[in-house]
Structures are given as structure tokens and as C-alpha cells.
Protein 1
Amino acid sequence: ELYFKNLSKQKQKKVMEKNGSHHKLRVCVATCNRADYSKLAPIMFGIKAEPQFFELDVVVLGSHLIDDYGNTYRMIEQDDFDIHTRLHTIVRGEDEAAMVESVGLALVKLPDVLNRLRPDIMIVHGDRFDALALATSAALMNIRILHIEGGEVSGTIDDSIRHAITKLAHYHVCCTRSAEQHLIAMCEDHDRILLAGCPSYDKLLSAKNKDYMSIICMWLGEDVKPRDYIVALQHPVTTDIKHSIKMFELTLDALISFNKRTLVLFPNVDAGSKEMVRVMRKKGIEHHPNFRAVKHVPFEQFIQLVAHAGCMIGNSSCGVREVGAFGTPVINLGTRQTGRETGENVLHVRDADTQDKILHALQLQFGKQYPCSKIYGDGNAVPRILKFLKSINLEEPLQKKFCFPPVKDNISQDIDHILETQSALAVDLGGTNLRVAIVSMKGEIVKKYTQLNPKTYEDRLELILKMCVEAASEAVNMNCRILGVGISTGGRVNPREGVVLHSTKLIQEWSSVDLRTPISDALHLPVWVDNDGNCAALAERKFGHGKGVENFVTLITGTGIGGGIIHQHELIHGSSFCAAELGHIVVSLDGPECLCGSQGCIEAYASGIALQREAKKLHDADLLLVEGMSMKEEEPVGAAHLIQAARLGNARAAGILRTAGTALGLGVVNILHTLNPSLVVLSGVLATHYAGAVRDVIQRQALSSAKAVDVVVSNLADPALLGAASLVLDYTTRR
């Protein structure tokens, strides 16, 4: 709350001048249960902290006001919010008919409240039946609706309710790119969609380092240690109540057998919850020495409990959404969250029909620690939502507009898009330099940092972390929203684990190195790692000549020779992650020795190292320099001198380059006959010198059916960094 007060003081004058209006937006926030309040409370604090812009009215209804569910309206009062209206809307019975009657009772009571409040806008969260009553009432009374967390996908009747509220709502705040795309596909107006992230993440991402031992002791006992207990939270599935009750019974049996201290929270108010409570009491859970059964835990304390748990089990959306922020292992049971985007920490047991399956899942997950996930937010949702609210023009027509069909399938226009650029941190580990860059979604390198690559593992990792932290901090000042970190490195890489298996001789002490874990832990961002040749291919696929091409190959011509293969729009890694080692295609049985130990590889003829070797031979024999060339006394001989000599008429130098180009061309012919791509992209500093020779060899040596291939030179300025960035941008966009 203090943060929002300070923020508002800094921006108040500027925003007032821009708006030219002193009208306060009257906002009604309606909360129905403990779960939606955890998402709405950060927004309410933000609104309350800016009284010069907003008037806040709080309406409480639903299970907040029921003793069996913890009378959770009290935590709203403890947060110092004035509750304008309390509406008792739950019809007891906890079956399907009771849910319908509860919606009807809310529809009867809400019009009088809304007539008295007359808000400019009502904020409604999620997919509960109470929220459907709120949205229906507001829509029919011509009150604008802002819907939080629309566009998401899950199981049960919640999906239908969520999408119904979306059609009633005038404005949408979504948490993920995928949810945004769903809203666009549902024909919602692009200009009224804000991709903000989940508001609860604003509190989650700063919570883990707070004192937690006293909270664990209070709820689970003084003898319990962090990572040595379980949090269980399971709700009924309204579309299959009988099965969900049976699954809950199996879950409790598995937890009893697993024999770890467990905090069990009572289920929500949906149909079937009463039967689930009966199952708990039948098994004596409330009196079992290993269990603590509670109706409600305050959100701030609940955060600490799941952050330091050995595992969370159940079917609550909290498990697949919020818990990922801490990397706590989660077991998601049944179909209630089917379709939700999840991090690595979630193990799904879709058909949890036996105790053994659930017990096996507990044995697999308990005590693990996964990388922190930011799929659902980066901790800055509330400032974006407040800006979005301030941008609402009450003079605009109230009637909704739909977009038939959706015309933009990649990005929607929102109030924050003008100020923030969705970006990736790209890291390129070369033989000489270590580079980090901030790269935008459009492939623009916003800022680049370069340092010499240290020789030892410890120094190299320390420098990577330092440069990434510096770049991430500066990205905030440059209004770049970092989605993740992509790393391009030489050698063989296991991209699934983020591990460098073994490297080239150019990078020392770089074998069996886990890059993902330390960088993800330090930055709290997802991390992807891949070979530099594969990254070059990904860069071409997203930003270069390979965009939209189904099958193509990229060859990097630099210090070494590398490459990447795109087949049916996907990158090929191979069974042991050494696909596309194109530099080690053998084109001569008795050729020069390669760094790999073999003879006659393309790299032994056409790489920068090979050309440097031949240039030194000519120079030592005093056959390199020709008229128009000069070299300083201590200047090292390199491939550039060989190329310059060939241009100035040195026949021997020209012959060496011709042989190198032929070797590369023969390698490309082998690739054409093996993979039959429609495009070959030559990348790297030597690409322009080899393009003509490669095309000539193809025309002489390739089968007629393969000669039609296009051979082009890459137009990308920095394929390694762009490829590393595309690891992040492609994956996060797809999710």
C-alpha cells in the first residue's frame, strides 16, 4: 500500500494534466470467497492508495459470510477496507440445485445495491457462479464490467461460466499470452484487453524471504521442518461429483499411507463439498496426529506455507498458478484444471482412480525443488491495471463491440503496450567474448553488453549472472518486460535439462554444466539453453529468410563450422543432441586434420581456423603479401589477410578459398541428398565469400531434383543473440 501511495504522488500531477479532468472513477469491487479476494486485494490496495483518481466501494457476498467456510469477510476488515454491503446469497445444500438457487438469490438482491452505489465500473474476478450473478446484474443495469482472469482454460462448469462472464464484460485483464489469444479468438475488442499478469503475483514474488518458521509452527506444529510437510486443497468437480468425492477419499488414504504432516484445507462451497467434508470426518482427519484440518488460512500466511512445503496436492487453481512462483512441487489430481498452463513443477494425475497412483505421485514429487515460474505474472500487474482503469473513457458508448473475425493473432493493443516492450535476455557464449542483449519481440537489439569470456567455470558463471542481473535491472528503466533468458553456447547441449554436455575446445571448463538452475534461481525467470548452430537456425526461422519456410538448413561459417536443421517448422536435436554437426561432414578421406580428431571435415577446409592455418603457411613462405597489402610487424595472420590477398590477385590465396568453397559446397550437396530442404541459409562472417562457390558445386554435383534449392546469405546482423532470444520469445508466445 505504501508503494502505491508513493507511486501516486510522483505521477499525480503529470496524469492530471494529461487527462484534463478531475472526475473520480467510482469502482465497485465485489468479492465472493477467499480465493478471489487474494487476487482482488492487491487491486483494492492500489485503488485505495490513489483517492485523487478513484472511489472504492466493496461488496461482500457468497461464502465469505458463512461460518463453515471461516467467515473470511473478517480478513477484508483486517485489511482496513470498509465493506459497503454484505449480501447473504448462499443457499445451503451444497448440491447442483443449491448453486442455481444461490445465483437466483444474488440476482434478486444485487439490483438494489447497485442502484444505491451507482458505480462507474464493477470489477469481477474469475469463474465462480457468484461472479456470474454479479456480471449479469451489472450488464443488465448498464454498468461497465472489468473481468479479471478471463480467457483461461480449465475443467468443469467453471470454463463455461468464465467465458459467459467474458461475453458480458466490457474490459478484460488477462494473465497469460495464451489467455489473451483466447479472448481475441472469442471476438473481444483488442483495445479493451490488457495483458497484465495475475495480481496475486505482486505479493507472491516478494514473499518468500519473509519469516516463515513461526507460521509453519502455528499451523502444523513446532516439530515440523520446511520441505517436510504437505499442503492439500481439493474441491468438488461439479460436472462429476460422485467421482470427485471418490478421488478425495483416495487422496486422503494415500496421504495417510505417506505418513507426512499434512495441512488439509476445507473445500469450497460448490456442489459436493458437504460430502467431501463427511469423508474427512469419516476418516478422522480432524483428529489424526499427522493432519491439521482448517477452514481458512490468511493469504499472506498461506503463501509462506506453500512456498516452503515439500509438496502441494489437490485440484485447486492455486496449485497450478500461484505455487509455481516458488518452484514447490505440485500434484494436480483429476480434470478440474485441465487446460491450464503450468510450470515444470506440476505433475498431472488425470485419472486418479487408485490410491497407488496418488501415492506414487507423492513419492516422485515430495521434497523436490523446481525453477521458479513466471507464467502467470512478473509482480507488476497492479500498476498496469490502475493505468488501464485511468484510461477508460466514460464518454464512450456502453454497447460492446465484437471483432469478427479476429484480425491479429500475435499481439493485442493494450494501454501498457505503448510503454512496455515484451523482450528476452539473450546470452551468447563465444570462444572469445561473452555477450548479453535485451532483444524485443520484433528482433530489435535494444541494448547489448560485451565482456571477455573468462577461462574458468566459476568466473564465467559469475560474470553471466552479473551481466544478466545488470541487463534485467536496466530493462525495467527502458520499459522492457523480460519474459525469460535464452542462452546460445558452443558444444553439445541438452536443451530439455538446460545442461551443456561438453563444449568445443574454444571454451574451456565447460562440460556437464547446468546453466538453467543457477540463472533461473537468481533472476526468477525461465531459462532456455541450446547450441549456437541451433540458435542460428531459430533466428532465421523467426526473423530471417526461414520465416514461414517448412524445411531449411542454416550453416554458420565462422571460427568453426556449425548449423541447424528446421524440419516441418521444428528444430531437430537428434537422439543424443548432436544433430546438425554439419561442420563434421567428411568430404575427403585424406584431407587435413580437424579439431574433432577426424580428417577431411568441412571445418578442416572452410572454417576461420582452417583459413588462418593456410594463411600462416603462405606468410611463413613469404607468399601471402602482394602489392597493395601491408601488415604490422606484430599483427597476427588471419583469414582476413588470405581473403584480401585473393582479392588483390594472389593466385595461391584464391586457390585456397576456392578449395574451401568447394568443400563447403560438397557438404551442402550431402545435406541436400539427405534432408532435401527447400532453402540453405549461409550465415557468419565468411558466408558472402562462399555463397557463389556453393551454388556452383550444387549445379555440378547435386541430383537434378535437388538443384532447385535456394542458397542465400543471412541478412541477420547477430544470429547467435537473436536465436537465443527466439528460444524465449517463441516458447512464451506459444504458451
Protein 2
Amino acid sequence: RTRYIQTELGFHERLFVAVLTSKATLNTLAVAVNKTVAHHFPRLLYFTGLRSAKVPHGMVLVAHGDERPIWLMYETMHYIHQHFGSDYDWFYIMQDDTYAQAEQVKALVTHLSINQDVYLGRAEEFIGGDEQARYCHGGFGYLISRSLLLKLHPHLDSCRNEILSVRPDEWLGRCIIDFLGITCVSQLQGQHYHTYELAKNTEPEKEEEEEFQAAFAVHPVSDMTLMYRLHKHFSRIQLDRAYQEIQDLQMQIRNLTSLTPAGETGLTWPVGINAPFLPKSRFEVISWDYFTEQYLFSCPDGSPKCELSGASKADVSEIIESALEQLNSRYQPLLRFSKRQLLNGYRRFDPTRGMEYTLDLLLEAVTQKGHRHVLAKRVSLVRPLSKVEIIPMPYVTEATRVQLVLPLTVQDLDFVANFLDMFAMNTLDTHDNALLTLLFIYHPYDAQRVSQVDVFAGVKAMVGELEKRYAEVKIPWISVKTEVPSQVKLMDIVSKKHPVDTLFFLASVWTEINMEFLNRCRMNTISNWQVFFPVHFQEFNPALVYRGEQTASSSTDFLRDGHFDRHSFAEACFYNSDYMTARTKLAADILERDEVLESMEVFDVFLHYSGLHLFRAVEPGLVQKYALRSCNPRLSEELYHRCVLSNLEGLASRSHLAMALFEQEQANST
């Protein structure tokens, strides 16, 4: 399982950052550090002696209970070793009155070998000590390798008892020198740790010294405002460097294009971005969505026109603003453009390069002499795909027990035998860690006659046969009387009868259970994090697809004669604890109006009341044979409409339907 190869092989994360703060500066300088550079580091913790009554939002704080500087340093090093010593290669320790260029520090550790004992920072002499020995000044931050931390940890107690010092950075430096013989260095393996000491009343925007521009860390930062000004200044420097690097790379690409087989015709726009996707057939053509400044003419709900709002409105506004900015930067000072109106707008998402836009703008151009002219201009823009980020996910295994829940109505009786056969073959015979609970849904009329005629007697007999064949297996059932089998109401009953840590798989009678899907159900469902709603593959009606011919059964035809049914939300994988939490919020929202539940599915409960990730994806391991579903008109209009659409789209493909109509017309004409 490749997603766990890093954990199983013992690979380490690269960088851990510790920020030393105090009760007095926790809500000021520490907050400024958190807002400026914390999100650039993969892991950052704040260490203090005493904590405030209220910890600022978004900060992970460790309080040691003592404000003495040496004690704080000792406890911090001990804590880092105990909790993170085996997980990270590098440890960067800084104070809350330090501004660190996070990207520069991260780039630095990528160029250093982890096989050496590294103590890197701004090297300072000890007062009255050995001229050769140096310690790393704490105000400018310093870097310690994992190997050094592991060797240092056994000596921390001795250092605390034997070394006297007022400054914690001097104490740590003396400890490393006395017991390990390693001194602080400012450069190592060709890498320089640049620092800059701020003078009083410094104006960061006016600092032009090369030493300041190249600094990894700046100290001392006296207040929050100065921290934010430093961050703005260095962010601008990094942005200018990035733009310059892009221009240099584009120039190199242009110069090299003539040497390629395609020549200059192979140069794509924008330079350096992947070429647009070239469809191989008309079915692969990516369509454009039309929009204006007020409306979008390709709506998520399928309606032809909807109001432009939210993220889409912000996207359109930003892209128009960017277009004007690019036009003015190109033509000023000769011309200055201002927007009068967006005439037409088109956008599409190209998975090979990003979001593409074409805008027809009505502009007013003003010359240097003040002459005005109105003109229409078409511009094209691309919002490229940015760097792909791997989202950290909690660790899950394939050993979790899955509790299948199968609701059954009278209309489902013809399909139960096949479901139970597949369940026995793919789970019971293979000893998969999966259990089954049946939910018999009785119509009130059938429930009154259950003592004379039980409509589910045949199913109960089949369950009894399975329990005889597999002595260790018990398949319980729950009987429910209702005219409207609301998925949420049924799940409420099942939820109360199982432990909170149960992993449910809500199945349908047409589902063919297999080990491959059950494992994906386990892997894609994460307690208190994510629920999984697979989109099953629905086979088409064989009477329309094959028209009397033999049904294709070879593996090459797998997933050919069918479609993924995006209208169905019948299958779901989720933990009982997550359902109970979302259901509690729903109950508080609807109060006693239980009729609202008839218009909802489990998907709606998680979507509106959970705050969890909803993973909705096509599932090729979940294949259903064709069957005409029975749509209950007592359900909500939306649920009934989705059921009807699922039946209609599940008949056959457009080509199959066209062929059937053609043959019918041929037969009628003869």
C-alpha cells in the first residue's frame, strides 16, 4: 500500500519548528509569528513557562509551568526529543521576537546532509570563555539535526545541574560543547545562515543592504506591527524573485524552441505552461461555460441560468481585474484602459493546465493627451494549476469490521437471493471481517397480517439456511412498519442498536458485495474526518443493449455496457459516531418536524450537519445488474425525481437507444 510506505519504512518528516515565548508576549509577538510564518512550516509548536487564561486561536501551546529561562530551554529540548525526536530530521528553534523567512529556512535544510551532527546559526563568542568555542544566538534562531538531538538528550540532566548561565542559548551551546564537542557554525556544506540585527526605529521598506535582503532571520522585532511590516517586505522580495525567475525561464524556453522538432510552432501560450488538451474525438471536447458579470449560464443544478455568486463571482471579478492590470502594464504610458462592461465571458477547466478564460471587454482607452476612445477587445487568460499539495490524512487500516445494513421492501424480494449468495461467496467463504443486518420494511397492511402471511418469510428462511451453513455467523434482522421508508429514519433505528465505533456500509439489494470494495470502504472512511459515498456502476438493460444476442462476459467488456449512476446515493460508508453527531445537530435544527426527514437522505445529513469531508467518487468495484427500481411517490419530489432519472438513464446509452428506435422503425415500415 503505497500511501503508507513512508510510515512503514521509517521515513522522517523534514522540519520541526519550536517557538520560545512567554506569558507576557503570547498574545502579541507570538500571535504575529503565527499569522506571518507559521502556515509555511509543516509543524510548529509554541513553548512557554506559564500560559495565559486563554490561548490564541490556531496555536498549539506547551506550558512547562516555570518561567525561568534555563528551565524553559531544558524542558523544551526534553519535550522535543520525547515527542518528535523519532519523526523529524531537523529542529529549528527560534524566539517570538524573531522574524524568520520560512521558505529560506525550508530550502536550507534540503541542502544539508542529515548524516552529520549540525548546530547551525549565528555564532557568538562566550563571554570570558574559549575563543574557539561558539554558541548559536537564540534571537536569530538555530538549526539542530536529529542525530545531534539524540546524542544530546542523555546529557541534558547533567547540563542542568552543572552549567550555570543566565542566557538559555548560552546554556544550550555550552552543554553541546562540553558533552559533545560540537560548536556553533554559521556556514556548513556550502550553505550560509544569513542573519540581520535590526537597529532601533528601523524602516524595513527603506532597508536596501544586501545583508538585510538575504537574511534568513531578523532580530530583535519589538512589536507586532514591525513583524507584519517585515513579513510584507520579504514577501514582496520573494514575489519579485519568483516573477524574475519565471521571465528568465520563459526566455530560455523561447530560445530553445527553435531547436526542437516542432520548431517555433511548438511554442505554447503562456510560455512554460502545458499545451491545451487536444481531444481525440468529439466526446472528449471540453465545453466552455458562458457567463456575464451578473449571471452564469451553466449551473450546478442543471438550470440554464443562475445568478453569479460566491466563489464564482469572486473568480470573475478577479479575472477581469487581472485582465485590466495586464493591459495597462503593456500599453502604459501611451494608453490607459478602464472597463465599461463585460460583453461576453467564457471559461473552462482544462485538467492538463488549469482554468482558461476568454473575455470580450468594452473598454475606454485614454491617451497621454487625454483623448478618449471606446473599443471592444478580446483577451485570453489562464489560471494555471499550482503546486500539488498532499493533504495529511489520519491513519486507517484494512482490518476494521464492516457492518452491512440492507433495507428491504416487498418490491426487493426478487433480488434478495442473489444478494445473499454474493455476500456468502465474497465475505463468509473468504472469512472477511464483515457482518450483515437486514432491515425488513413492512407496509402497515402487511404488518397487520404478519401472523397469517409474512411477506418476508422466504428471506428469513434463506437467512436460516446461511446460519446453518456457517455456524459461527449470525445475521440479525430488524422489522419496521412504515408507509414512507425514509433513509434517515431507518438509519436512526439501526444506529441505536450498534456501538458508536461501528463502521456502517449502507447497501442496496442490487449491490454485489466483494472484498475489493469493502477494503476501499474501510480505507476511504475515517472516523471524525471523512465519509464515503461511492457511485456504483449500473449495467444497462440487456434487452436493449444486446437485443437477443449473447451477453458479453469477457473481462475486456467490463464496465462497457453501463454507466456510473450519479443520481443514486443509496450506498454509503460512515462511522456510527459521525452519524450520531450529525443527527444530533439535525434534530436541533428541525425540532419536532419529523416530516422533514422524508425529504432527506443520509448524504444530506452529512452534507449539511457534519462538517466532515464527503468523498464522492466512482466505484468500479461496485457493479449492479440492471433492474427497474420502484420509485415511491410518497417520498419528496426531489428524491422521486432522482429515482425516475436513474431508471431512465439506466436503460441504455444513446447509441443503443438510437439503434433500438431504428430497428423498430424498420420493422414498422415493413
Protein 3
Amino acid sequence: MQRRQSSKTPKQPLQVHHKNQTDLSAWRKGGRIHLEKSVQNDQSPNDQKNDSKQDSLEQALSYFEKVQDRVSLKKNDVLQKHLNTVESIALQRGLPPEGFDVLLNVALSGKLADTVNTRLLKSLVPASVIPENSVVSSVSWLCVSKCSSNIQLLFLRWLITVFDFIDHKEQLHALYGFFFSFLQDEKMCPYVCHLLYLLTRKESVKPFRIRRLLDLQAKMGMQSHLQALLSLYKLFCPELVTITLPGKMKTYFKNSEGPWKAAINTVRRRNQENSPVSQLLFLGTAQPQSRKRKWNTQLIIPASSTNQNNLEEDREKNHVDLYSTNESFPVEQLQTFSQLLQNIHHLEFPSQMGSVLTNPLLLHYMNCIKDESIYLRLYYWMGQTLQEECTWCVADNNRYEEEFKDFLETVYKTECFLQEGFSSCEEFLYRSLPLWDGFCCRSQILRLVSWIPLSSFSEMKSHLYDPLAQLFFTSSLYFKCSVLESLKELLQNWLNWHVIHLDSESDSQVYSLNTTLSGLVNVVAELIHFVGWISTAALRLENNPTFLLYFILDFYETVCDMYLRYNLPLLIMPPAGVFYPALLSMDSVSLNQLCYIMYRYRTNLVAAKQNELSKKKILQFKFSSQTYQEYNQYIIAMVGCLWTSSAFQKDIHPQGLRMDDELLKKTTVQEFKTSFNIVYHPAMMGYAVLFLQQAWPDDMTFNFNLIKGKKWNWYLEYLYAQGLKGLKVFIESSINRVSQASHSKA
């Protein structure tokens, strides 16, 4: 089919820049032009049906292109027929690139009633890409005010929704000032700000535009869309925007997607199922994807506004052009780290920010340059995507759980690469966790939890701890262990962040959650208390399983070393509901783990006490006497159990093992005093049996009373040789007799 001429002004045929974009005839056949030879002469009934639909679409487009005078929908069967044809095909297969010029021109020219124009605009669902020339041509109709304000508003909403489907954006950037002039319309202002937010570059920021936005803010009040645009301006030119803006907003813009988002997803799925060639047409990518969901399409760097063929020719002619410092370097040509280093100051990020997630070179750039505008754009895109595509928050998304898992995995890997969490992920978790079943995307969600940025406790308690606790107590043992592992990684990420930023020049820039180090200490303390609480309850619910106890003690291995390893003035002892199940565990791994933890607690507390006594500087934080008291109570209980066999008499902890002798005699256990020393302890008795077999191979009575005196020291050496290093360092640091004997022997 030949390219039609618009009824408004004669135009030249649309020059298609992308090498994979085809004309309407090729689109009708569902493939590229060079595939025509492979089409069989005998068409199936479905093919004939498709051809019939496309003939109807051609007729409808021809009709709308030739409309001259204002036409009413009432009693006009021809208009009704063609309008239904456009709507039907748009919702089934999407419209070809060449159909947008015709339909946009007629919808914005005012030749038809608003009801017809509204239906036409709502039918503008792309099958592949949208030509930039069509969008620019339609924008020109806004200058002559032929269409009503409602149609203009609907057009802006459509433009925002399909922004990433427009093949090029250079001419749109040239219209920045034109769009800016529409800010004076209060009804259109939120959507104009949204569009400007997508189009803004550093060169777009001008003093007169900042003054205009400030005037509008003074007139309308603190509007989120104005704050969003001002925040972006301030990131590009902080010297021009001197006012103080809110640090973080939950949502900047109203939802602009209307009916198009769902229709686009439906068309993509249907085209994917019907024709594998449609994969090549979608957004110009020649690499087939599993399914064209929003994040999959935007994880590939799109082509720039320069013709791809010309880029290839220029690259062959002159390689020096790739490193020119006068012009921006196209990111789709960025292939090596050396290219990144040579062009690092004039890279321009793609409009589709999702493509940054899978490009290590661009992630290196983000780490090196720290351009806040890039983070702002990425957070906005990611927040929108997570909110719209969550499989348990949005109806009919359950079928795409695997793709959503892949996307969450990509986000997690990006956070690990950058070594920082995204605020948009934090907001997504806070919104979605109360609705989460604990099963869908479990591994990915818990990994994202481990990268939640520091925030105030009140916010984390209501949005993270409370919904997580409900799932924790009602889920399986494996889920409980997964949550504990995630919270341990969260604690480690916070502590690593503290170490990295400890020597920062400006503390006010580092500790933004409460502007002081005390804010960090309080939030970390609340996390540790929360883990202690759920761990105590979980051990009771699950009857003290060794598997669960391992993850709990693994968490406290990080807690016990916070003062020396991470330079954080905080130490919190495990609750009695964790300490005593570990002390009385029937598994030697748990007991050995507990011994090592108590050894590290002692090392950290001794260092803190020495630091306090040295008085070389005024300390902002000091450990409370309660921490030392609780540690001493635990040490008395451990030494009484493992060494002196006096735990039942000397344990002074309120929840400890202290019992009267009369009560112990009623248990009918003969040697109850030695029941938990390193020979008779249920976790150590297996080692004692093996030691007796090696020391007295002919004695089959297994007389544990033989392990005393010099044999006791031999038994200790035997235990150390079995890999119980935690037990070794605990005994040598906390019991003087063994420590002195070891030194004298050495």
C-alpha cells in the first residue's frame, strides 16, 4: 500500500529510520519483507481472515484520512463501521507504525466529535514502534487549538504511556519549550510535568523555567508534579535551584496509563503467540525474548535517534568519531571498558532506564560519576514497573510469575553490583509485603529485603517487621530460616555502609535517617531486638530444631562483633530464649557456635571497657551496665555447665537453670550435677565415647569417670583436634586453669 497523504498538508512519505521497521504491507503479512518468498501460496483460513481484517483496516485508514468536514457519529453507519474496525484490530493485534499519522491527525484536527476522537485516541495501541514524525506532526495540531482541552489532555496521557515505544526522540526534545508553555493550564499541568520529566536533559534547565516553576508553586501550593520537575532541575543544576525540596516522595505523578497499558500487554502476548517474527518488530530488537513484558523490553539498550546503518558506516570509516569529546557518545556503541573511560564525561543514558540494569559498563558509570539525575530516573522507572507488574498486587498477573522473578533477580544483582539498595524497591516492599503470601517469588523478595536502605524504626516496624512477623510465625521451618538469613544480610549491609561512610567529610550527608550516628544505632538495635523476639518464638514453635538454631546463631555471630569489626558502638546480648536452647542443644555444632559467639562478646566488651577507662577522648556512646551484667550471667551459666558442674546451683539469670537439690533428686538422675559438662553433655557425649575407645581400646564399659585429671586435659586436646575451635577459644579465654596449663605446657 502506498503511503497516504495527510488531509492537512501534503507530506513526503515517512522515512523509516529503523532497519527492522516495515511498511503496512509487510506488517499485514506478519513478517519482514525478505520473508515474503517463504510464504506459501495456499493460505490457511486464519491467514485469509487476517487478510480480510487488514483490508478493512486499510479502508478505515483511507476513510479517516479523507475526512474533510465535521462528521457526526449519529446515523452515520460508515463512520461507525470504520471506527469499530480500528478499535477491534488495535485491541487484537495493535496498529502498524504508519497508521498513527492518520489517526492522530484526524483525532486532533477537530473534524470529528469528541466522542469519536476519544475512541480513536484510546485505540492507539502500537504493534511495534511509533514513528517520531507522527508524534511531532500531531503535536503541531495543539498550536491551532482545533481540539478540545479534554482531547489534548487525553493525547498527553497517551504520549506519556507510549513514550518508550517512540522510535526516536530528538525532535521531541526540540519541542521541550512548546510543552513547557502548557504548564499554565492547571488541568494539564500534572501531565505536562510528567512529560517534561521524561524529556528533561541538562541543557533543558534554564533560569527562566525555574522561575516559572517557582511561580506556579507559589500559586498552586506544594504540588508533587512541580516538586518532581524542580527536583530534577536541582539535580542537573543545583546552583540555580536554591530552595529546599522534600527528600523523598512516595509518588510524583498521577497514573497516566488509562486503557493503553492493559491493551499493549494483551497485544504483545497475542502477537508473541501468533507470530515469532513479531519479536523482531517489537521496539526494533532483533533478539527474541521469552515474552515482551515491560521490563524485558526495557532491559535492552534501544537505538538512538541516529540511523543504525549510518552508524555502522561511520564506525567503519572513522573509529575516532566514537571518542569525540564534542558530541554525546551513543550508549548502544559502548562495548568496552576503555570506551567507557574515554567517553565517561559525555555519555547520555538511554530513555529506557531499564536497559541500565543489565549493562555492567553503565553500572560502572553510575558508581563512578554519582549523577543523581540518573538515580532519580532509574528510581522512577523501577518504582512504576514494580508497582504495575507485581504478580500478587495486580490482577491477572499470576501467569507471569517466572518473568517477574527474573526481573526481581536482575534488580537484586544490580543492587549487589552498586552495593546499595534502591529506595523504589523499599517502597515496593513496604506496599506489597502486607499482601504477600510468602511463597510467590520468595527467594527474590527476601533478597531484596536484605538491601533495604536505612530508614526510621517506626516506618520499618509498620511496613516491614509487622507483615514479616505474621508470615514468619505461620510459615514453614524453611521459610523461617530464609527470613533469618535475609535479616542477617540486611544487618551486614547496614554495617558495611557504616564502615564505608565512617570517614566521610560531612556527617550530615552520611547519616540522613536521623542526621546523627544515634539514628543508625537505634535502627540497628531495633532490628536485633526484632530478630531476638521472632527467634525465641520460633524455637518454641518448632521445638528447638538444630537447623533453625544454626541460622539464629549465625545472625548473632555478626552481632557479637559489631564494636570491633564494624566500629559501631553497640552490643546486644541474645535473649535467654536463644542462649539456653543453644547451651543445652544436643548438637555439637550449635554448642561450638555459641562458645565462639560468647568469646567474641567478651573480646568486644573488654575492648570497650578499656576504651572507656583510657579516657583519651569523650565517648558519645557507652555500653550500659545491663549489657555487662547479662554477659556475666551467661558466662556463669556456661562455665557452670561445661566446666564446674555447678549450673543448677550458681546460675543467677532469671530464666536460667537454677534449681533446688530436692527438685533435682526427684528427676531420679544420679549424677545430675555433671549432666552438662564437656563429658556428659548430650552434644559432647559422642566425642567422649570415641575418646574412650581410643584411650582404652580394650575397655568396653565406657566408664566416663576415667576422664579426669591428666586425662581431662588429653580429652580437651582431643576435642580441639576435632575442629571445635569455638569451644577452644571460649575455654582458654574464660577459664584461667586451662589457660595457665596450656601456657605452662607450651
